[in-house]
What we know:
Largest sheet: 5 strands, mixed
Low-confidence stretches: 1-19, 142-148
Radius of gyration: 19 Å
Structural class: mainly beta
Amino acid sequence: xxxxxxxxxxxxxxxATYAQNxxxxxxxxxxxxxDGSTYVDSYVDIVxxxxxxxxxxxxxxxxxxxxxHESNFCWGVQCYPPxxxxxxxxxxxxxxxxxxxxxxxxxxxxxxxLSRVTYCFFDQANQQDSVCFExxxxxxxxxxxxxxxxxxxxxxxxxxxxSMAAFSYRITNPKGEIKMVITNLLGKKxxxxxxxxxxxxxxxxxxxxxxxxxxxxxxNGDQTIRTVKLTVNR
Length: 234
């Protein structure tokens, strides 16, 4: 009986982990730059891939802001101030439709620095049906390289991913070939992507990866800058 219970529990967890989401996000602007003189905006299109209309809300989940920066967002026809993190009114999205009304704004108030904010979109009737994106606001445009933000690799968005994951990265001092190396948890190399610029947003095609957890490492020459975890879920 104990073994049967364990099997049922394992299957339940597996089904919950790999449940199909109807909400997906496309065309995210993960890395956004500005000089501090005005608002910096980020965008993502939210798609309902299901068979029925769903009511979608957005929540600002986390934010790591440079001191003096403020974040707010717009969803539908309403925009919300920094002290509101959850949209009071959901947006209905019919089956197969795309909603392009989201705008994540950062007000830098003239202050240089890097801020990041995570927004999650979810079905009000089923909050497990959700997708999250981490947006970066790089308010360093126009300053010298010595003062620029250090080497960086963003977390993948969305994560878990289905057919794609968006990354942003920065290499302040290229020392050779820049690449993204994808390995499984056992350290076996699965894929390698050559990157042709020291600062870039790029999309990783995950449709050829099996469901599971992968490690994505940004490599500059023979130096690994950062490794982030990516989950592929279909």
